[in-house]
Specification:
This protein is 72% helix and 0% strand. It has 75 residues and is mainly alpha-helical.
């Protein structure tokens, strides 16, 4: 029998999800915690990259000033 990937959307609010998680056995909660750690870590990395690119133009204005070149010339 071949497995089929199915996406199901359930209209659950936060409290309902918490209630479901509370019903999980301890080992399943640990698995969920590890999954959430990995999933949220990826978002954090993406946010840092986006922040870098968003601030690059603003910082470049200062970097290109003659005063900035003067300040760094002895290094």
């Amino acid at each position: 029998m071949e497995a089929t990937k199915v996406n199901i959307t359930l209209p659950l609010d936060f409290d309902q999800i918490v209630n479901l998680v509370n019903q999980l056995p301890y080992k399943e909660k640990l698995k969920l915690r590890e999954f959430l750690k990995k999933d949220t870590r990826q978002d954090t990395i993406k946010e840092k990259i986006q922040t870098h690119f968003a601030s690059e133009k603003a910082l470049a204005r200062d970097w290109l000033l003659p005063e900035e070149d003067e300040a760094w010339k002895d290094l």
